[in-house]
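Supplementary Text 2. Reproducibility record for the structural model of the 186-residue chain.

All settings were left at their defaults, and a single model was retained for analysis rather than an ensemble. We include the record here because the model underlies the residue-level annotations in Supplementary Table 4.
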Amino acid sequence: MPIEAGEIKNGMTLIIEGNLYQVLEFQHVKPGKGAAILKTKLKNLRTGSITERNFNTNIRFDQAMIEKRQAQFSYSSGDTYYFMDMESYEMYEFSAEVIGYQSNFLKEGQEVSVKFFESEILSVDLPEKIELTVTETTGAVAGNTASTATKDATVETGLLVKVPLFIKEGDVIIVSTADGKYNGRA
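Retained model, structure tokens:
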């Protein structure tokens, strides 16, 4: 479905030169001389790379319809991660390369959102924050009462998280999936 440059909004998905891009930022710029331009910051949904591109404002783009389906992480085997569609019970496979850093937050039975373009599986979207159990950490250091002091803790997925000194093994903590930082106790 073609759209005008003036109709672009953040979050929209466009097909540009055969690639799928999500609009992260856009700005209409009218220089002192010449025609107005559209400055954009785009994320390639197939590779994950982010690029900045300028376009004439008279250009038309094809909008891509991205479908999201709820799925549940089932298991991983070697470099392959398996997810089950919550409605059709169909299994989706993702390579470790596609999952990347997100593997630090996946645990069996966790619900995620899977993005599709037509029949092509693009990516997995995790919730903003998840609960993880601390499996290993050191005890609090005697005499250190600084409220900003932290220590290392390993969670059930193997991720190393900086946590406050009062956190102990077995505690369930909330971790941000964007940056892997501690966000509180569950």
